[in-house]
Specification:
172 residues, four-stranded mixed beta sheet, disordered N terminus, globular, Immunoglobulin-like, 9 strands, five-stranded antiparallel beta sheet, alpha+beta
């Protein structure tokens, strides 16, 4: 027979509590922010966007990717989170735009619910080794100054109640 002391139960609660708390609310107020990235007025598709907090701004910032029309939705950066937190904490941020680590396409932005409608009883096609080859990297067309926290001049202020924040880059 195994006996647990009150100290053992207390220890278990202390150890397990952060595990369960890490799965819940981020604890920050988040503004559900969307927008469009443009370069000289033209949409900038399939790019990575990072909002890095400027001194005095709470949280760890936010990030996202632009779709084929340059539209993006921000997701808060929450260390240890196992789910997405749509939006960005209010505050001032330096904006960094770069090529994503993995090339993106329209398929990466499709609605998973619509993909489920295409499920059939037919067996999946065989995957060939050539199908697993990495996608060709996209040639970068982002001016270098926007790609680094050391040089990006872009600053954005996220305020509660805002819904759209466009990011406009210039080639010169």
């Amino acid at each position: 027979m195994v006996k647990f002391s009150n100290h053992g139960l207390y220890l278990a609660a202390v150890v397990l509590c952060p595990v369960f708390l890490g799965c819940g609310d981020s604890g920050l107020t988040l503004v559900p922010l969307t927008g469009k990235i443009t370069l000289d007025g033209e949409p900038l598709p399939f790019k990575s966007l990072m909002l890095v907090p400027i001194e005095g701004t709470a949280g760890h910032g936010a990030g996202g990717y632009s779709d084929g029309q340059g539209n993006f939705k921000l997701r808060a950066i929450v260390p240890g989170a196992i789910k997405d937190f749509p939006g960005c904490p209010p505050g001032k941020y330096q904006v960094i735009v770069s090529e994503p680590q993995v090339p993106l396409s329209d398929a990466d932005f499709s609605d998973p619910a619509s993909q489920m409608a295409a499920v059939t009883d037919e067996p999946a096609p065989a995957i060939m080794l050539s199908d697993m080859a990495p996608k060709k990297p996209v040639k970068g067309n982002i001016p270098a100054m926007y790609t680094s926290s050391q040089t990006s001049p872009l600053v954005i202020e996220v305020i509660e109640g805002a819904e759209v924040a466009n990011v406009e880059l210039a080639s010169k």
